[in-house]
Amino acid sequence: MSDQLEAKVIEYIEVLASQLGVATEYLFKVLVRQAITEGIVYTLVGLALLTVTVTGFRYIVKYARRMMEDEEDYTDIALALLFPCIALVLPTVGTFAVLPDALLHLFNPEFYAFKTVLEVFK
Asked: Is 58 left (phi over 0), alpha (psi -120 to 50) or beta?
């Protein structure tokens, strides 16, 4: 089954190349540049999320230490810090979801260019 699918994809690409002519090379270069650009943007977003996460956790630790000096009942501290900790879970998950894909876009942009072309035929 996969051989038939691969043959059809190659046939579609050949038809597309014959219709576009010289524009095929230009199109592929544009798609590779687009993959690199997406990788850079995803990396910056991942680093921004990582910065938010680290800064937030540092603030929570600093706030918790200050509260522990004033309070003797630690249950109030735990409840006060519950929401900020839950709120920082989202940027943490986002960081680990975005960064691997971003690095793959940067290290292998040709794959994502081909992937874009193949998505047209789905």
From this structure: alpha
